[in-house]
Give the backbone structure.
Amino acid sequence: MSSEADDFGSKTKSLHFLLVPLMAQGHMIPMVDLARLLAARGAHVTFATTPFNLARIQTVVDGAAASALPIRFVELHFPTMDVGLPDGCENADLIPSADLLLPFMNALSLLRRPLEAHLQNLDLNQWPKPTCLISDNFQHWTADVARNLDIPRLIFHGPSCFFLLCDLLINRHRLELEAAMEATSSGSFMLPGLPHPIMINKHEVTSVMRSDPDWSKYMESVRVAEESADGVLVNSFVELEPLYFERYQEVTGKLVWPVGPLSLYKEEFDAKAARGQVSSIDNKLLFQWLDKQKVGSVVLVSFGSVVRNTSAQLMELGYGLEASGQPFVWVVKEVGERQVLGVEEWMIKFEKRVEGRGIVIRGWAPQTLILEHVAVGGFVTHCGWNSTLEAIVAGVVMATWPHFYDQFINEQLIVDVLKIGVAFGVEEPKLFGIGDKNEVAVKVTRGEVQKVLERLMGGGDEGNERRKRAKELMEKARMAMEEGGSSWKGLQDAINYVLESRQK
């Protein structure tokens, strides 16, 4: 190693990154990977979250200790019952009803006092003072913490850069878009300011986060805090969405660093299997079954940690999977840990009918490992960004079934821009991932499930081109995270920025 590299390594070891994720699995998981990547570069890292969320990632905590990575995991008390949340409701996937989402988000600022108490008790002989705070963009209160510490604050964004740019432009051109909505009945509008034409739907302009006064107040706090941030880290890679990285940086005027796909963090099989949470199935039996299937023949069906479908929709999906004749792995959180009434008895009968051809996982699944298995050729997904990236990393084509928030715009990226997916055609979002009384029972019929799967898994020029593009993106994703790649360099540039800020 050169003396210059030695000098850089010694400087990095003097850095201390304080990470504050949002307590939602889609946000927690990549932040955990980011923490380990920073520690692997030699920096000290404090990962601060609540007791329940630390318990979920105990495998990671143990692994970091065993490998002597300089990471500390800090428990912050979250007074759920004091703000009207159920006892232990420390993660978004535990919120029982949509009307409790905003109270949960507003309560996040209550983490400030325990975090500052921890920082006041630091033994500076053992652990250096924080030199940079990296927080999820929804943890807006951390702006004041960084200001008091007089250190840079970087925003970590979970969604795609494509979504970030679209969301920013929707807010910027909202009056113009609302006027366009009144002038037409089509429901689709051209979004100004993008590098190429993209149509957005009415619900993306009038979502609850923009139209409800209480939500608007919260989102304004998020926006103000984001404007004060020194830079932005995005869990994506330049080669996936180059035009959007360039335009997003132009529009925000901020330093924007690609650091993904963070799911490519190198780790052992058992650690990957417990990524995010311990698996709800015997992994040995699962992978023995996958080993017996033909290459590229299996469909994985999974809608992330928050989404909860109605019992009628679950059954309709099951009948569609059964009729397709395709081998499948179906992750069903609505049976077991996220119980939906009336499903369990039906599911038992369903499993008997598809025995040998399909596997149902009740709860958490080792999704990354399943997607990487050679037998898996298609993925029915809610278009959450973590799931999307995991499919891209595995070179697996997608059938897109968005439910809320960024998922509809991610679908456009997958289907219309990257052309590695087939859409189910769902247009109406949920208020939140969980159901509500006014939700339509069935949005996708069994016939539509069968039709989309046939198109996704079928051959022909269209299917072959889709798979070819997916494999090409897989290679680009892996190259981005290798030493010298665009995301490897993005993380290094962010570290250099913090080093330079400290010197100034």
User: Anything to note?
Assistant: The chain has two domains: 3-265+482-503, 276-478. The chain is about 45% helix and 15% strand.
